[in-house]
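Lab notebook: predicted structure, single chain.

Context: the supervisor wants predicted structures on file for every construct in the current expression panel, including those that have not yet been purified. This is the next one on the list. No modifications to the sequence; it matches the entry in the shared construct table.
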Amino acid sequence: MLLLVACLAAGCGSDASVQTRAQAPACQTRAAWQRLADRIHATVLCPTWMPTPIDARIGGDYGNGVSVKPDRAYLVSFLWHESDGSTEVHVNFRGYPGRTAIPRCLRPTGSKSVDAPCFSDPHGTIAVGGHKATLYTANLDADQWHVLYAWHQNGSLYTASMHVAAPYQYARALTAIRHVVRSLVPIRPR
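Prediction complete. Output recorded below exactly as produced.
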């Protein structure tokens, strides 16, 4: 009997859902992500996997800031770069609570700026937690030069993006951001 209990605790049973739950990674700094969810009164999505060398620790060594707008839209950014600018790893997470439309940004065109969708040029979809995420490759604002996935979940728009730059050129950045998106776990407000 003791052997059976030990085996079940270790996840060696035949039920794949038990193994998945037992092996599911945790949000790296759940308390900080929880504070963000509580601050905006909406669910945020915390990554359990990030591309090397950054992590998802809000306020940590790679934290590049958290901003929240009056409408509760948020941006959480993580960044690492070489001092000579030769390599950079930059990942952004956004949420737009209660909104599903792609936001608008100013796009510079010569001597003036025009109002344009912040995310454009869709290039296919992937499945994310029962939702369909669309890849966008022409993005503005903090997501410029990034590959970006956007999806709707519970009446809100969420995005995750990664800068296309050495050492994560296009194909590698795309693989990494897919992995990031698939690793997200919801943190609900209390």
